[in-house]
Amino acid sequence: MRSSNPVFSRRGFSRDNGAYAGFGTQQPQAQAGTATNPYATNPYATDPATGMPQAPVRDNAMTIDDVVSRTAMTLGTVILTAAVSWIALPVDPANINKSYGIAIGAALIAFVFAMIQSFKAKPVPALILAYAAFEGVFLGVISSAVSTYIGPGTVVQAVMGTMCVFAGVLIAYKMRWITVNRRFVGFVTAAAIGFMLLMVVNLLFSAFAGGDGLGFRSGGLGILFGVIGIILGAAFLAMDFKMVEDGVTYGAPREESWLAAFGLTMTLVWIYMEMLRLISILKGD
After folding, report:
1. How far is 247 from 256, CA to CA, in rounded Å?
2. With contact defined as beta carbons under 8 Å apart, do 92 and 149 qualify?
3. With helix as H, strand as E and coil as C, how does 240-271 read?
4. How distant, in Å, are the alpha carbons of 39, 75, 118, 129, 139 from that of 4?
5. Tell me: the pLDDT tens digits for 30-83?
6. pTM of this prediction?
7. CA distance 102 to 90
8. DSSP secondary structure code for residue 7 in this structure
9. Which of 54, 196, 220, 233 is 20 to 30 Å from the Cα of 268, by its Cα?
10. By the 8 A CB rule, do 12 and 243 touch?
11. What contacts 59, CB < 8 A, 6 or more positions away?
């Protein structure tokens, strides 16, 4: 199952070297109306009927522990650099322009690193951690600004909200209340593209006409689009869980756990930003 991110389109697990056929790979159907396992050629895949490996598990197969440890490293980098930037780049009248300038620069650099990784054939840990570091600088300054001008409890509420969304989607996915299939992926991807286009148009109107552009980020419309943004983030989180589950089940190489960590981090950053924006609008009103 190919997964994408609300912010950037990225590759799923897509290795097809005879040992592992990855996400996004399609195989011809055995007969009309019957779907074949796109990973059937992988001798290390788990047999869905028995739950047992089809062959002895190789030493470098990805596990849930690998995904958890890499995700902890990536998120930990985001949190650490966010905390440092919060302290070192105070958002006050004397330093606000400098802090915002550094934050915007860090966001652009993080975007470049993320795009480079998205088009790489294999995950590059250095790129992923560099993305996390610069993303953390951006989040630290933005969070400091919200805490200063909106309310000191806003950031804590956004963090708690993000954790609740993560836990809720994980529980719903494990209980199979959410089914991630081709139709689900297509619908969510199309909705995300439309959402991003509207935000870009709103940003352009804001830049040239002033104010909040078309009003998608303030008032009632801002609240509505904030909720939609969080729902989209939750949907992409379910797609990330599907990607991880399939990667473990079908014997993805261990290095692919970095790709899973990259995707989960980007999705959680998206949800946090939308949560922070939504709470800010509610408090601001």
Report:
1. 8
2. no
3. HHHHHHHHHHCCCECCHHHHHHHHHHHHHHHH
4. 20, 19, 10, 19, 22
5. 333 334 444 444 444 555 555 554 444 456 888 899 999 999 999 999 999 999
6. 0.80
7. 11
8. S
9. 220
10. yes
11. none
